[in-house]
């Protein structure tokens, strides 16, 4: 009897928890496949994929903004890795004067609320003609991505076994060759995780793009925001779903790249 | 290896330069701009105007972010505790699978989900109505300060819970078993043995969550359009409607001060702990 009551209690708590986690997502999915839905109906009156056709039409704004988003995220990953791999290697493996101060500066974008910074970046970019350009948006995304990229890269390089490098050096490999053929491949899973993190962060970024991207660069989050505020719930829900898929896929995959102990180290 | 140091600096230099140019410099620029009048003279007028117009919003922001952070910590501790101490493997596995879903969902998508879920005619009210618990026609939605808090907690709890449960999992099981043998209940073990040992990770997680919530622009706009609102919205409004960078940056300085007082804990921990594994 007690055991049954226990399971009833556990079941209800987990059930409520599941409803709170999945309810908002389910409501989004409903909107994505609803054609007609208004108060006081609890469920859509008619379902269909008409709005999907509108979003995925090659000439649509949403399709164009998806392309812009993927382009910006890809360049941001390249920029971040180019900067973070050497920096992470130096921070993770080598003696570095002023290491604490350097870490602190690279952490800055996480430690300060960014809205005021973004609106001043927009003001400065405006003076040099970077406002409303892909390059401007990439730079803003890269600064934020660098924090996570440098930290994961540093942790990944710190975890590489020094003995293996020494073995390579003993067999006559040069320092450069050891780095390229031993150290980098061993750190690759961590760097891969950093790349995915940066890609997602860039894909999802809203605030910086909102200030720096206007009026010419419309990414998917900006497009979703406009659709939602305009009461275009179907379009907003479909674009939100497009953003949701990579986020959830990454959540399910993350254990392959990062274990929780490494995450704890990153924090 | 002192001879290698110049090369190390050279390796860090590009990343450092980018952060200095694109974050530290605009940050300094916003500080200067907050204390400068439109004609370029130094002034405190921006702050006078800020407190005249936006004191309510500043308090509103502080309350929302503080309550959200507290609730996030509470749920993260409960989830982490159950994952480590839960006696029923099936329930633990299910919880572990459940809690992570919002982890990487962007704020703007979370806001769109909640905008429909918490509305008067949203799934929350409709479900409660179907269960006969409430009458939907007499209800209003939760799309105000409560909606902002729900969205923040929904989005931030998985991150802090992941950090906290990860740290709890690495703790020595022996002390937990010892406490259990001496008759301590799950709640007591959580409060007196687990939480004190993971307080560092919990602090870092909550500080990051706090500063992040202070920087979010989309959620307050999309969840509650009206007034009072959060200061991020006011900043955007000052710039977009009036090109008033002075007051916008003064609000920015207020947000730095709020975050800075909390972030200090985080930075100090990281710099102090950098030598540790």
What does this structure look like?
The complex is a heterodimer of chains A (267) and B (277). Chain A has 267 residues and is mainly alpha-helical. Chain A has two domains: 2-47, no CATH class; 61-266, Orthogonal Bundle (MetI-like fold), CATH 1.10.3720. Chain A has twelve helices and two strands, in the order H-E-E-H-H-H-H-H-H-H-H-H-H-H. In chain A, strands 1-2 form a two-stranded antiparallel sheet. In chain A, helix 6 (134-158) packs across helix 8 (175-204). The longest helix of chain A is centred in the N-terminal third of the chain and has 33 residues, at 61-93. By secondary structure, chain B is mostly helical. Chain B has a single domain, classed as Orthogonal Bundle (MetI-like fold). Chain B has helices spanning 5-34, 45-85, 89-99, 107-117, 123-130, 145-169, 173-181, 186-197, 199-214, 218-223, 231-242, 245-272. Chains A and B meet through helix 1, helix 3, helix 4, helix 5 and helix 6 of A and helix 1, helix 3, helix 4, helix 5 and helix 6 of B.
Write the topology of this structure.
The complex is a heterodimer of chains A (267) and B (277).
Chain A (H helix, E strand, L loop, with lengths): L1 H32 E3 L9 E2 L2 H7 L4 H33 L5 H13 L3 H14 L5 H25 L3 H9 L4 H30 L2 H6 L7 H10 L3 H25 L2 H7 L1
Antiparallel strand pairs in A: 1-2
Chain B lengths: L4 H30 L10 H41 L3 H11 L7 H11 L5 H8 L14 H25 L3 H9 L4 H12 L1 H16 L3 H6 L7 H12 L2 H28 L5
- C-alpha-based Rg of chain B, rounded: 23 Å
Find the count of extended strands of chain A (DSSP E, 2+ residues). Answer: 2
Which superfamily, in CATH terms, is the homologous superfamily of chain B?
MetI-like
Query: What value does the Rg of chain A take, in angstroms?
Result: 23 Å
Provide a count of the helices of chain A.
Answer: 12
């Amino acid at each position: 009897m007690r055991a049954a009551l226990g399971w009833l209690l556990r079941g209800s708590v987990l059930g409520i928890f599941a409803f709170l986690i999945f309810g908002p997502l389910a409501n989004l999915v409903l909107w994505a496949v609803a054609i007609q839905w208004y108060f006081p109906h609890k469920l859509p009156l008619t379902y269909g994929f008409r709005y999907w056709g509108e979003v995925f039409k090659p000439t649509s704004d949403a399709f164009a903004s998806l392309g812009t988003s993927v382009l910006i995220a890809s360049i941001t990953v390249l920029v971040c890795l180019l900067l973070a791999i050497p920096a992470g290697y130096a921070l993770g493996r080598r003696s570095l004067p002023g290491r604490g101060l350097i870490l602190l500066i690279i952490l800055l974008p996480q430690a300060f609320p960014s809205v005021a910074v973004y609106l001043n970046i927009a003001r400065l970019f405006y003076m040099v003609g970077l406002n409303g350009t892909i390059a401007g948006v990439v730079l803003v995304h890269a600064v934020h991505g660098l924090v996570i990229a440098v930290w994961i890269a540093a942790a990944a390089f710190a975890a590489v076994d020094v003995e293996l490098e020494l073995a390579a050096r003993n067999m006559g490999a040069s320092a450069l060759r050891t780095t390229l053929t031993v150290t980098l491949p061993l750190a690759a899973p961590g760097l891969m995780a950093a790349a995915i993190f940066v890609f997602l962060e860039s894909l999802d970024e809203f605030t910086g793009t909102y200030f720096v991207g206007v009026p010419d660069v419309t990414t998917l989050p900006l497009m979703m925001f406009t659709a939602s505020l305009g009461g275009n719930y179907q379009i907003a829900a479909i674009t939100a779903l497009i953003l949701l898929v990579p986020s959830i896929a990454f959540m399910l995959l993350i254990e392959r790249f990062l274990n929780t102990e490494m995450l704890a180290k990153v924090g | 290896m002192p001879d290698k140091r110049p090369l190390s600096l050279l390796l860090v230099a590009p990343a450092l330069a980018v952060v200095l140019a694109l974050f530290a410099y605009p940050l300094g620029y916003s500080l200067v701009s907050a204390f400068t009048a439109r004609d370029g003279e130094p002034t405190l007028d921006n702050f006078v105007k800020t407190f005249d117009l936006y004191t309510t919003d500043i308090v509103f922001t502080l309350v929302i972010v503080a309550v959200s952070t507290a609730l996030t910590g509470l749920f993260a501790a409960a989830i982490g505790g159950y994952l480590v101490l839960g006696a029923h493997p099936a329930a633990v596995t299910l919880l572990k699978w459940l809690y992570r879903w919002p982890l990487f969902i962007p704020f703007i998508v979370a806001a769109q989900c909640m905008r429909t879920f918490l509305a008067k005619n949203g799934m929350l009210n409709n479900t409660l109505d179907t269960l006969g618990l409430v009458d939907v026609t007499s209800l209003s939605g939760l799309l105000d300060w409560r909606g902002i808090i729900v969205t923040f907690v929904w989005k931030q709890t998985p991150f802090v819970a992941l950090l906290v449960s990860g740290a709890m999992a690495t703790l020595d099981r022996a002390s937990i078993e010892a406490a259990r043998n001496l008759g301590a209940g799950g709640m007591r073990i959580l409060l007196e043995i687990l939480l004190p040992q993971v307080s560092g990770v919990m602090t870092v997680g909550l500080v990051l969550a706090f500063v992040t919530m202070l920087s979010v622009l989309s959620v307050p706009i999309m969840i509650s359009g009206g007034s009072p609102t959060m200061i991020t919205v006011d900043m955007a409004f000052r710039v977009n409607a009036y090109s008033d960078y002075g007051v916008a940056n003064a609000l920015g300085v207020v947000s730095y001060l709020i975050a800075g007082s909390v972030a200090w804990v985080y930075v100090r921990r990281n710099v102090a702990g950098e030598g540790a594994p």
